[in-house]
Amino acid sequence: MCGIVGAVAQRDVADILVEGLKRLEYRGYDSAGVAVINKKNELLSTKRLGKVQELDQALTEAPLAGGTGIAHTRWATHGAPSEVNAHPHISSNTIAVVHNGIIENHQALRSQLQGLGYEFLSQTDTEVITHLVHHELKTSDSLLSAVQKTVKQLEGAYGTVVMDSRDQDNLIVARSGSPLVIGYGLGENFIASDIMALLPVTRKFSYLEEGDVAQISRFDVNIFDIDGKPVIREAKEVSVSHDSGDKGEYRHYMLKETYEQPTAIRNSLEGRLVAGKLDINTFGDGADEIFKNVEHVQIIACGTSYHSGMVARYWLEELAGVSCNIEIASEFRYRKSFVPKNSLLVTISQSGETADTLAALRLAKEIGYQSSLVICNVPGSSLVRESDLAFMTKAGAEIGVASTKAFTTQLVGLLMMTMAIGKHHGMSADKQAEITQSLMSLPAKLDEVLALASSIEDLAEDFADKNHALFLGRGDQYPIAMEGALKLKEISYIHAEAYAAGELKHGPLALIDAEMPVIVVAPKNDLIEKLKSNVEEVRARGGLMYVFADSDANFSSDDTCKVINVPVCDGIIAPIVYTLPLQLLSYYVAIIKGTDVDQPRNLAKSVTVE
Ligand code: G6P
Fold first, then answer.
1. Does the pLDDT at position 476 exceed 80?
2. Whole-prediction pTM value?
3. Into which EC class is this enzyme placed (predicted)?
């Protein structure tokens, strides 16, 4: 979390830095700040509590001139969101630092530095880096070497950029646990947490590896590995569209991204189902060989990505006949687990940078998983680089904190993975053809679902004065109920829970009254009669229900039950189809409640701290 941008240029860089921060705001938006070195070697800094817009406004009123600078948008960990805790942090008017991550030994370092006479102004862990660099510089011949000595003393995670007002020519950057990418310009160079920040100024990037420290000047970039040895990190041109960050005609990114789902899925399918057959190479070199040996799949993910993994478990066991476990990354990484023979470790992550998921992948390699696959939306991200195989979802940049198109394209990838593994476990050619057909029908089906938007908008009125909601589903719709509940709580701040409908009687039924709307996802499938019995249990206790169902499921509206007709679709893709109405419902409830849809309070999109 937290977004970092830095630049060394001849021109003034404050505008470039602020534009970069706007593009990184998905990483945190508690406060923002910028510092530049001016021609007189003075350090000038402006910070504001709140969003980057506040900082932008302040800089419009009082611009900062300088060709070397750093900037930061914060997601608070240590110390409340406030101007004093905002980055950059500055030591002795000379050293300025921005940091993403958590310095776990900050208390000990703070005491040590206080003993040396350093005065701390903030409650952040970051401020220790600032003073430590200043202190190390007293006995070092360069800022680079001071930073190299500093990072050796840090425990925890960092992506950090350091500058010294006495040296306009260089930025020193260091990475351990938090991503950093170098952007190469003409006579100017840049650093950022993510390429998105730098797309207006360059398309040429190289990624720092764990433990790297680099010196960035206008014409040179020198990178050193964890042992201080010079290394080359190959620079590559990217072809991402510069404008993928625009909202276009939509009021919010989340709505835009919800409507982009048919296209995102079309893009994710394109070239992968050739003449009705899945191209296994889409997972990477040697994929078929790896899939051939898979006897068990362990899925690891966080948040919305965890829900897509839950759906995949149903698919893998039912369609491919392969056993599958799924676990939240932050749990998996801290327990001793059994590794079944010939297991494939599958991580799912929109960003490819989620700290817990990355740590889980690294642990899995240590404890004996034979191979790994990531389902990811960001090329070049840490999970992609560190996994044996990768399925790249082609959702395009997802900006809204609440994930929409990344989730449904993950499901598409996971269904293709099910086919690829199933092929080696007796999945028939007919079944493969049926799944292919189902996937191909998906974009058009989703267009039909999006046409329900105005009736779902009307429905949202019923929820705006409620404090709680219960989502119910069975089978592969249970994870969809979970995802629906997560969306509602994330962006409307209504407390929402999801239950496998068969579990109702074991507790949640006690909560049912007219103040607890119950949302049911109910396509016609093998479990529909069971689900109907659960619906009756709610009705008998005076609950109010909102049932998303197709006409074949045969529900009818009455005083206590509103039925929202979802187009009939093939059962295999029903989890994807039923996701969209729930996304729209939470969106419209949030609109009525007036919450910040794209940047809900206390959250961030890319969680690079554990
Ligand atoms: C954050 C985001 C969620 C996302 C989760 C996992 O909590 O707000 O939308 O699902 O991280 O992120 P990942 O990038 O690993 O999918």
1. yes
2. 0.82
3. transferase
